[in-house]
Amino acid sequence: MTEIWQCCVFSWCSDFVLWSGWGFRVFSVSEVSEVSGSFESFKILEIHLTRMFKKRFESVEKRLGVLEDDRLNCREKSLFSSSIWHGIFLVILASGISYVATTFARTMTSSNREVIVPQSDSLKLNLGSGSRRFPGYLNIDKSDMFEPDIVWDLESFPWPFRNDTVEEINLFHILEHLGSSPEIFMKVIQELYRISKDGAKIHIVVPHPSHSDFISDPTHVRAISFDLLLKFSKESNRKWIKENKADTPFALLLDVDFEFQNFHCVPDKYYLKMAIERGIINSKEANNYTLLYELSKIYGNLVKQISLDMVVRK
């Protein structure tokens, strides 16, 4: 009885380790090579496990037959019967480990896949592209859902681009998603400056920080305003220092420098109409972006989004 039990346990444990490890390799290889056959791999594993347990049970059954005349009793027969359920349990457990291996392999291949960047000194980047793809640009996003040209998390540094090789960057509704901590946001600004050529243009569109579009999205972690971006201009920094203002001279501290052009506000039509009806602004002033921006500091939801161009100076 003891010998039979030890034989069964040893066989189950050794084969479980062997075949669950084999399953991990099958699933990992199928994921890394991006073969759309994970379910086929699972079926292969299932077939091999079934064959393995069938052979093991036949082997145990033969051993039981040899000992049947003088050692086998009802309790030992019950043991063999229960071993079938142990086998089924191990098949399920091995399959579970293989599923975990599949998920792990998929995560590894999506987050650490090889990044191939064209060797050009005049790159155009569409950062945080999502479904907005632009021809002639490298479309970059951290998710492969929309099949970007490069999968990259913009909060992972350094970015996979050489110094002074980018002439144009689109940041359309992405900057507000970056930099929940000041350190990360400052690093994003430094990377934008590092990879850009002198005179490169960075096109920015963000929701206004006082509009409900910004407030209602939990992934909006950084309020972007013209006042914030102005802190990354060395000219503005020097002016503030001369005037003894309390504004932090981030451009001088980080050694970055941007100029600003084409500032534009998009008013929320509903709240703009309300502001005109209440005499806060007249219809002629509705296209005065500077006035709208200043009023938006008092009246929330008046401005829906802001856009501007940052020009890199080196």
Largest sheet data? 7 strands, mixed
Shape descriptor reads globular
How much of the sequence lies in strands comes to 15-25%
Number of helices: 10
Task: Tell me the span between the first and last alpha carbons.
Answer: 83 Å
List the helices and strands and how they pair.
Blueprint: H1 2-32, H2 38-66, H3 74-111, E1 123-127, E2 138-141, E3 150-151, E4 166-172, H4 182-195, E5 196-207, H5 212-215, H6 226-229, H7 234-242, H8 250-254, E6 258-267, H9 269-277, H10 289-296, E7 303-312
Parallel strand pairs: 1-2, 1-4, 2-3, 4-5
Antiparallel strand pairs: 5-7, 6-7
Give a short summary of the structure.
The chain is of the alpha/beta class and 314 residues long.
Describe the structure.
- By secondary structure, the protein is an alpha/beta fold.
- It has two domains: 2-111, Methane Monooxygenase Hydroxylase, Chain G, domain 1; 123-312, Rossmann fold (3-Layer(aba) Sandwich), CATH 3.40.50.150.
- The chain contains ten helices and seven strands.
- It has helices at residues 2-32, 38-66, 74-111, 182-195, 212-215, 226-229, 234-242, 250-254, 269-277, 289-296; strands spanning 123-127, 138-141, 150-151, 166-172, 196-207, 258-267, 303-312.
- The protein has a seven-stranded mixed β-sheet.
- Helix 4 links the parallel strand 4 (166-172) and strand 5.
- The chain is globular and about 90 Å long.
- It starts with a helix and ends with a strand.
- The relative contact order is 0.08.
- Mean pLDDT is 79; it is low at 1-43, 66-70 and 100-112.
